Fold this protein.
Amino acid sequence: VITYLGKIVEELDFRLVMVTNQDGLGTRSFPEETFWPAHNKMVALLEGEGIAFDEVIIDRTFKRENKPTRKPGTALLTEYMQGDFDLENSYVIGDRLSDILLAYNLGAKGIMIGKSLDLQDDEVDKAHVEAALALSTVDWKGIYQFLTRSNSSSVVSRTTLETSVNIFLDLYGEGKTTVKTGIGFFDHMLEQLGKHANLNLSIETTGDLHIDEHHTIEDTALALGAAFKKALGEKRGISRYGHFSLVMDEALAEVALDFSGRPYMTFEGKFNREKVGGFPTEMVQHFFKSFADTSGTSLYIKVTGENDHHQIEAIFKSFARAIKMALTRTGGNELPSTKGVL
């Protein structure tokens, strides 16, 4: 708990609120002096490790009273429901079904920890539990990994009269890719991007290839850049800068990038053929320019070589490795800028 809750606090942009039912606290059946020493000791232990709760909310009623203040009721949480909080991307973590139902009632998501779900209780609204449940796990490492990845993924759809593009992106994946654009060599390059940047990437593009390849490639790049911008969020805790040089036979590609929020692209290279496998070589530079525009990336690309296939593939692989470097987590939640915003 201490290790991974601490990493969540340090690396991710969440506030912590403790919500607990303590049946009859302060009554003869549950005297105050039997609760506070243990509670305060645990809170102090966590605070000593940098894990501090913004608020501790305790409901003292009994279940038989059926009070709206008792979890999964939300009467004590109106501040969070009415305030400027992103509840849709917030989580209730607990080991009871009431925690998952609280998530549902808040409009948040639920994480069940420590045991498997039992939906046999007739008093439980199974549909609400299933709708709110985002994860069931036995340890805090699983929660940390889930939240890290949930905080760095995006879904983007872009539809015009010329193309339809649907993209799923997970910045911290395992290199799993599914790409279908109708242009074989382009698919191959995007697969290289996912593999060598360790992205989980799904791209499906339907375009007006009966005209030419331009709109399909351009709009895929624009949507991919938008997916990166969305998944990067505030860019806290990442290295921000990436640089990689890669050789492929006689070709040498060099890519440097900065997730600066300011789009700019410099390209140095020359191709000998009009197309490689149905992919126009003139669209290489345009692909990266379009990506830079919508992602807000400063991008420098230089390539030399004789074989255009080798040159283009070296560029995409270098681009992927530069992205991987820029996404490296620094171990904190600091914004990598003195400006205060990227």
